[in-house]
Amino acid sequence: MEIWINPACSKCRSALSLLDEEGADYTVRRYLEDVPAEDEIRAVLDRLGLEPWEITRMQEAVAKELGLGEWPKDAGSRDRWITALAAHPRLIQRPIITAEDGTAVVARSEEAVREALARDGRA
């Protein structure tokens, strides 16, 4: 399992603590430093079953600068959103855990982390 984190994020730190408590085997990806490429973002979106605007942090300053609130949320605009996420990784919701079963979750709650653990054959 891999977890995309921003170490400054309290939700990320909580998720890591829970993974450690449960003895999970995972890899940490500091996605602000090791920025995911557009293809990686597409793959994670497929695993999440979500669209890019659903994992975009709309309150970030860069979201406001780009005017993301005005961007269409449709299939024709999907690539534009993915390009923005790759160019500005701070916009990506966190933490994201990819499980061994091919799925992923946005792990902002203890329940979501436990769901990822269950998908990974734990908990």
Automatic annotation (TrEMBL):
Name of a matching Pfam family: ArsC
Taxonomic superkingdom: Bacteria
Listed SUPFAM superfamilies: Thioredoxin-like
UniProt-listed InterPro entries: Arsenate_reductase-like (IPR006660), Thioredoxin-like_sf (IPR036249)
Gene3D superfamilies: Glutaredoxin
UniProt cross-references to PANTHER family, sorted A to Z: ARSENATE REDUCTASE
Family: Belongs to the ArsC family.
Name by which UniProt lists this protein: ArsC/Spx/MgsR family protein
